């Protein structure tokens, strides 16, 4: 299997897992999001029109950051799992 094929398969798997996880968040994650959303709405309601533009930019940047962070953790986790399984198979893990 070529590296490109493996990377494509890994990207597809990771995207699938991210989508599945997003639809089955833990209660703690749901609670944290609810608190964040509540405070974000309260803050937004106090802003001027010009400040709301800046706030929207911050919201968009935060959403991008969270998505990239999640993607990065899934890639790292998947890579660790593959490394572990290959090491276990080859008996290099003690």
Protein model, in words:
The structure is a single chain. The mean pLDDT is 84. Helix 1 (3-23) packs across helix 3 (49-89). With 94 residues, this protein is mostly helical. Helix content is 85%, strand content 0%. The protein has helices at 3-23, 27-44, 49-89.
What brief labels describe this structure?
94 residues; mainly alpha
Short overview:
This protein is mostly helical and 94 residues long.
List the helices and strands and how they pair.
Elements: H1 3-23, H2 27-44, H3 49-89
**Average pLDDT score:** 84
Which descriptor suits the 3D outline? Answer: elongated
Q: What is the N-to-C order of secondary-structure elements (H for helix, E for strand)?
A: HHH
Question: Given the helix and strand composition, which structural class is it?
Answer: mainly alpha
Strand content: under 5%
The radius of gyration computed from the alpha-carbon positions, rounded to a whole number of angstroms, is: 19 Å
């Amino acid at each position: 299997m070529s590296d490109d094929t493996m990377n494509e398969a890994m990207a597809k798997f990771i995207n699938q897992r991210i989508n599945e996880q997003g639809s089955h968040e833990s209660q703690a994650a749901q609670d944290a999001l609810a608190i964040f959303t509540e405070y974000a709405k309260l803050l937004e309601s106090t802003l001027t029109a010009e400040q709301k533009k800046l706030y929207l930019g911050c919201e968009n940047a935060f959403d991008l950051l969270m998505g990239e962070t999640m993607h990065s953790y899934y890639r790292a986790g998947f890579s660790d799992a593959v490394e572990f399984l290959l090491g276990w198979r080859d008996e290099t893990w003690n």
